[in-house]
Amino acid sequence: MKSYVKEVERLIEEGLNEQVAVQTFQMLVNRFADDMHRPELEDFKLEIAKARKDDRAFYRSIIDEGCGAFPFPIEMSWRNVKFEPKRVKRCAICSDYYYDVSRNGGSVTCYNNGICANEYEIRRKRAGTILEPAYRRKVQEIPTDFSPKADDAQANAFMNKVEMTAWRNRVEKAF
Ligand SMILES: [Zn+2]
Question: How far is the CA of 162 from the centre of ligand 1 (A)?
Fold first, then answer.
């Protein structure tokens, strides 16, 4: 069995399926993002940590409501689901926020059924950087490939660029 961070191991020991235990923390990252999303990873982590320190009731309610939305086979609440803000990372492939459950803290991709992990391996074996692989892709495929959220910084940057180009083209045509 793979080894996970202690908060994940704890839920597995209490009887939760391994995959479900991993996804629980991803689900909570999304819940925190719903309430306090920040475009910068460090700001987002800080915001969650601040809530844990200064607004415990709110922090716990996010965990309890998140867990309450699913029919878990075991009792799940802030008492046994110990969400650690410092484990939140940004996926190297889709750039969504995710919870690094690996014991050594060395994961670089999210846990979407291995899609990003596989893509990462493919790019790692090729020339070029992870974010800008040397092989050619159709530009239009980039934003739809992993359907980034509307608030995703990279997607926004991409959309701004598209809009700017469209705007420039219109302006040029007008003259
Ligand atoms: Zn990903």
Answer: 23
Token readout for 149 is 């959220």
Determine the distance separating the centroid of ligand 1 and the alpha carbon of 54, expressed in angstroms.
Answer: 31
At 153 the pLDDT is 59
Ligand 1 centre distance from Cα of residue 4 (Å): 19
Identify residue 90 by its one-letter amino acid code.
R
Q: Is the pLDDT of residue 161 over 70?
A: no
What is the reported pTM? Answer: 0.71
User: Which residues are within 8 A (CB) of 107 and not within 5 positions of it... i.e. 6 or more apart?
Assistant: 89, 100, 101
Closest of 89, 73, 69, 63 to residue 7, by C-alpha: 63
